Amino acid sequence: MLSHAEVQAVGNPPFSCLDAGCGEGYYLRQLVDAATDTQPLSLMGLDISKWAVLAAAKQDAKQMPLSSWVVGSNAHLPVQTGTLDSVLCMFGFPVVSEFARVLKTEGVLLQVEAGTNHLRELREVIYPTLKPERSTETEVPEGFTHHSRERVSYSLALNGSEEIADLLAMTPHLYRASAEGRARAAALDVLNVTVDVHVAQWRRL
Ligand SMILES: C[S@@+](CC[C@H](N)C(=O)[O-])C[C@H]1O[C@@H](n2cnc3c(N)ncnc32)[C@H](O)[C@@H]1O
């Protein structure tokens, strides 16, 4: 999760922002909380999962009157070319050419991706062996410049099987792990996990 300050750094309001792969809309709600009263926001949350979009829209309620929630794919965004100030892609499935298409010149793409140690302790429990680590070096995407990259890393204590199950359910590991792996996680009462993410900002040329 990002702090309010990090969410605020996404762009200077007023701006239009698409969360591409918004899940249940957590980050757009953070953006609304971080915004000032005098600056309007125009927000769209898009996800390929209709269940995620329904959950986001339900939580939205009256809090985000200018937001829209859309079932769709990052591969074909229902957005006009060159109209957005910002695109967020948090732990998502980026289609950078499409993000470049919808952003204005100077618009910002903010990407958050898991680092090599992200949730390592959980992965060590659910998998017999961990895959070799991939390089996290990222090239500047075509059509973008002004690369800033920050690594955010801290330890998180999970107390109780419910918190551990909630975390596992937020990750793709829930579906990738075997039944035995999930059972090993379910048997835990306490788990300290490393949060290790890369936050990259790219500016549209
Ligand atoms: C790991 S979740 C991250 C959700 C949210 N961004 C967050 O950080 O809480 C990845 C999300 O991407 C969505 N997704 C997968 N493929 C997608 C695509 N092609 N276009 C849009 N969303 C997609 C999934 O349905 C899921 O909600």
From TrEMBL:
Listed InterPro entries: 23S_rRNA_MeTrnsfrase_RlmA, Methyltransf_25, SAM-dependent_MTases_sf
Coiled coil ranges: none
Protein name: Methyltransferase domain-containing protein
Domain (Methyltransferase): residue spans on this chain: 18-107
Gene3D superfamilies, sorted: Vaccinia Virus protein VP39
Leader peptide range in chain numbering: none
Pfam family, one: Methyltransf_25
